[in-house]
Amino acid sequence: MIRFIIKFLLALFIILCIVSTVDYLGDPANLFNRRNIELNAAKIISKGKHVTNLYNYNERLFQKYISELDPIGPNVLILGSSRTMLLGSDRFISTPVYNCCVSGASIEDFLAILYLYQQNKKLPKEVILGLDPWILNDNNNQSRYETLNHEYNKMISLLKFNNLFNDKINKTQSIKSKIKKIIFSDKIKAFFSPQYFRESIYFLILNDPNIYQTDRIFNQTITELQDGTIYYGTNYIYNGASKIDSLINNYIQGNKIYSLQNFTELSINNKYAFEMLIQYLIRQDIAITFFIPPYPKKVYKYFCENKNYNNVINAEKYFLEIASKYKIKTIGSYNPEILGLTDNDFYDGMHCNLQCIYKLVPAPL
Q1: Percent helix, strand and coil across the chain, each to the nearest 5
Q2: Distance CA 322, CA 316 (A)
């Protein structure tokens, strides 16, 4: 019996060694950051080139490297989420333009990324703010900004936020640190999962895990252009176009819409932070434009009819009030009908496509 147990444990140990070695070498989710994607991609962009084959990289860290490597800084800086990533330099007269959008951007990302340019003395002449409703949702579950937590805290100090807001920040960070531990635990589980093992084998066989420079805008995988805009892979674009109806329906099923769960009120603290940011930009004599990326018709209708998401509508009203108060130019709306958009102007339930961008900004600003 003891021999059997020893043999079993030895076999288990060997299997775990094989799995962990393959997972480490393949590392499809870049858990160990072995490929140094962020720095290498930033170096390519800083040379005025496009970079493709991007996946599973830290977008915030990438923005940090970009702000450091860019020799002069942009005249126009675009902040927002993936819903604003397609807004690029071809829509502006003033150049250079850089799109600093990151997936699931929160108010903390706005502050942290802007500070990157503040500390490097590269503040732009104009800032475009891509405004998603969840930046006013305390329960948006967005904690990815913590990569730039140092910069975030520095910007808070620079803006001289009041004690009430700082108390709220401390409590929020305590909660998010616990979430971070849970996420780390989930990564460990994923690392030893059969699915991760299969994906690692695929990466090793494919032998093409690295980013590379390209002159093409559209490629098989995600491409970051020299102005920071993100173009999706051709397979994603063409496959999505053929099933846009199902993608939109899937987005609003399950009552768990991206970052809008438990959106019970417009966050007082986030509104305060947002207005402090606006005032800071005005003091720096930086022009501001609000860009409000639309949702598909069925999704917007769902927000209007479902009381759990009525604050999406209220969020836009708030942004328009702030625009009126500070005389800020506004482009777009969550409501696609007033913009003359159809489902063909979207990739899925929350991302507008290039055709949509050109309808929203038909002539360079």
Answers
A1: 55, 10, 35
A2: 10
